[in-house]
Amino acid sequence: MRLLAEPACPACGDKQGLSLREPGPPPVELLECDACGGFWLDGAVFQALVERARREPPAPLPARLERPPLLDGPRTPPRAYRSCPRCGAVMRRQNYAQKSGVVLDVCEKHGAWFDLEELDRLLRWVHAGGEAGPKAEVRDAQWQELRRRARQRQANEPPEPPWYETLSDSRWIPWAYFAARLLFTLLAKR
Are the CB atoms for 91 and 80 separated by under 8 Å? Predict the structure, then answer.
């Protein structure tokens, strides 16, 4: 996959280019959009920032990366999937660590796109210990509660029939027919 010569903003589209910025000490180098305030970080730079946030509180973003003046008006809704500014491939949307609440647009080969304020929120979450999850005693209490509920359910419910007996149930016939038709259609296109 070739790299794009003039990277475009994944949020704004082809109408807006990205500018190279160096807001902090190496290895911090990013591509920033002056229109929407979003920016692109290479994977290695992002990992270095996360490692730094685990050890020390994240520094506030430089004034250059704060809300741009062009955002005073109404914002356009974000596109569901965005293109990587480096290679043009469609990026995958991912909730960082499956629980941070910060949904990133990630290119597996090149890095991640951060909308305005997403990196700051994410680094503060990492520094607060969000990656570690609940403490051991909380996990143990939750596990005990789940086991208690499972035992209570088992005591109150009749045992489930074996899987092959549920296949004779008429509820499965439309789904089986649909699955067979879908499989046949997909194989016929090859």
Answer: no
Strand, helix or coil at 52? helix
Show the CA angle centred on residue 26, arms to residues 30 and 84, nearest 5°: 25
Q: What are phi and psi of 55, to 5 degrees?
A: -90, -35
pLDDT of residue 160: 63
Name the 3-class secondary structure at 43: helix
Identify the residue whose tokens are 């149930």: 169
- Cα(82)–Cα(95) distance, integer angstroms: 15
Tokens matching residue 136: 């051991």
Report the amino acid identity of residue 165: E
Question: Which DSSP symbol is given to 50?
Answer: H
Contacts 24+ apart (CB under 8 A), 158-166: none
pLDDT in tens, 85-94: 888 899 999 9
Long-range contacts of 117-122 (CB under 8 A, 24+ apart): 119/39, 119/41, 119/49, 119/61, 120/58, 120/60, 120/61, 122/96
Predicted confidence (pLDDT) per residue in 41-78, tens digit: 988 888 888 888 888 888 776 554 454 554 444 444 55
Confidence (pLDDT) at 181: 87
